[in-house]
Each structure stands twice: as structure tokens, then as C-alpha cells.
Design a protein that fits this description.
InterPro entries: DUF3224, SO1590-like_sf. It is built from no helices and 8 strands. The chain is an all-beta fold.
Length: 126
């Protein structure tokens, strides 16, 4: 597996915002060894308990990964239970196109002082 770390910006546009459930459009710009843009949608549920929520999201990235061009999709699943977070982000199997065909892997994201970072472990199927 290869591992790259970089930065991204994200813009969330609310589409529905009810107390229990929200839906947002997301737009990201990745920089570093993964560079390009992504678009997707996120669904979230907030609870009455502070620090507890859940979200799922799908996004499709168009750009360059270590000099190879194409697209791929990411599936997010996140849970926060009273402030404790669990997040899984994986490449949707067989979603990659172009020079990225065969891509698989997983990503972690962090928000540090208002900046977003990705940590992406990936490989290509043989």
C-alpha cells in the first residue's frame, strides 16, 4: 500500500436541515499527491445528546493521484458517541476510471485548527 498525506478544503451547502436529520451537498478541493475536486452528498442525524451524531456520505473525486488521472468514489460512514469518533472512508470497489482503474484503499481525515487534512492509503489491483 502507498500512503500519502495532504490538505483539502471543503464547502458544505445545506439542502435540508431538520432537528433530527440534515442533507448537504459537499464540494472539496484536494491538494498534494492527490489533487483535484470532488462533489457529493451527505446525510446526518443529530441527537439530543451533545457530541452524539452520525453521518454517511458519497463523493466522487476527479483529478490526479501520484501523477495518474481519473475518477474514483469514496464512501464515508461516521459515528460520534458523546464526543468519541469513529470514521471509515473507503474507495468504492471498481469505481475508479482512467489511469486510476483498479484503485482501492481507505482514507482518514482530520480537522486541525480549521484546516482539513487527508491520510490516504491505497493500491491498485493487479
Amino acid at each position: 500500500m502507498q500512503r500519502i498525506i495532504g490538505e483539502f478544503t471543503v464547502e458544505l451547502t445545506p439542502q435540508q436541515d431538520e432537528k433530527a436529520m440534515g442533507r448537504m451537498l459537499l464540494s472539496k478541493a484536494y491538494s498534494g499527491d492527490l489533487s483535484g475536486n470532488s462533489f457529493g452528498q451527505m446525510l446526518s442525524v443529530r441527537t439530543d445528546e451533545p457530541g452524539s451524531a452520525g453521518y454517511v456520505a458519497m463523493e466522487t473525486v476527479t483529478g490526479s493521484l501520484a501523477g495518474k488521472n481519473g475518477t474514483f468514489s469514496l464512501q464515508h460512514s461516521g459515528i460520534m458517541s458523546r464526543g468519541e469518533q469513529q470514521l471509515t472512508i473507503v474507495v468504492v470497489p471498481d469505481s475508479a476510471t482512467g489511469e486510476l482503474t483498479g484503485l482501492y484503499g481507505n482514507m482518514q481525515i482530520q480537522n486541525v485548527d480549521g484546516k482539513h487534512f487527508y491520510d490516504f492509503e491505497y493500491a491498485f489491483a493487479k
